[in-house]
Design a protein that fits this description.
Elements: H1 4-10, E1 20-26, H2 30-47, E2 51-57, H3 64-70, E3 74-77, H4 82-93, E4 98-101, H5 113-119, E5 125-129, E6 136-137, H6 141-157, E7 170-173, H7 174-177, H8 189-199, E8 204-208, E9 210-211, H9 223-241
Parallel strand pairs: 1-2, 1-4, 2-3, 5-8, 6-9
Antiparallel strand pairs: 4-7, 5-7
Helix pairs in contact: 2-3, 8-9
């Protein structure tokens, strides 16, 4: 007869969740991921952090789904459309108490994860900000102007004391992000997240960051389409922000 003590000894220990989840939306970014994922693992090793790297594949036609597992990351399939749909899957998959989101195109240097990790207990959301003192943005003049107009418009109309509301390089407290009912499915989900966290009384902090242009491939942002999405989300967020 097996004793209860024997049962305890023979049972498998529960797997501990990772310290950090890193969510990377990707669409045909295999070449960039070949460089990015090893760099992420180097940074995590230096930090001594246990992490899971989740690549959310939006239906890539290249080798993304083949190379990601080989490079020590996990692939999950995107269900809903757009950048917002990719984040939803990533948030739902993440198991760690902290969730970082970053682009696959090498415009977000993994070394900056060290800055996030140092600041993780100081805020509910950390934003890698291009537009606060100490931040920089390597981008064409036209795109920089549009980005500045977008950020200033959202910040002023929504009463957010933030300079870079469109940065997708962030770290979240997973418990808080799990409470949000997100409706945006394009890049405007980034502003929706901040407004809803602000309305709930969450603390948002910007950390200076040097943004660099993508290394290869092409951007998936379509100006007219996302401009309309941003306008609709702005109206919806104004209603939410000032409804109380």
């Amino acid at each position: 007869m097996t004793s209860s003590n024997q049962l305890i000894l023979e049972s498998k220990p529960e797997t501990q969740p990772p310290d950090l989840s890193i969510v990377i939306p990707a669409l045909n970014e295999a070449e960039n991921l070949k460089s990015l994922l090893p760099l992420i693992h180097e940074v995590l090793e230096e930090l001594g952090v246990t992490a899971e790297v989740i690549v959310v594949d939006g239906g890539s036609a290249d080798d993304t789904r083949l190379i990601v597992p080989v490079l020590g990351a996990r692939v999950v399939e995107q269900i809903e459309r757009g950048y917002g749909g990719a984040l939803l899957v990533g948030f739902a998959t993440a198991q760690a108490p902290y969730v970082a989101t970053m682009d696959a195109d090498l415009s977000h240097p993994p070394m900056f994860l060290e800055d996030f990790w140092r600041e993780r207990r100081n805020s509910d959301v950390l934003i890698a900000s291009r537009y606060i003192p100490g931040g920089r943005a390597d981008m064409a003049l036209g795109r920089r102007m549009l980005s500045t107009i977008l950020n200033r418009t959202y910040s002023v109309l929504l009463g957010l004391k933030l300079r870079d509301v469109s940065s997708g390089f962030r770290m979240y407290d997973r418990r808080l992000i799990a409470t949000l009912d997100l409706r945006a499915r394009d890049f405007d989900v980034l502003e929706e997240i901040l407004v809803k966290i602000h309305v709930q009384g969450g603390h948002i902090k910007e950390v200076p960051f040097h943004y660099r242009v993508r290394q290869s491939g092409k951007s998936h942002a379509k100006l007219l389409k996302f401009g309309w999405a941003y306008a609709r989300t702005l109206l919806r967020m104004c209603r939410l922000r000032y409804s109380k």
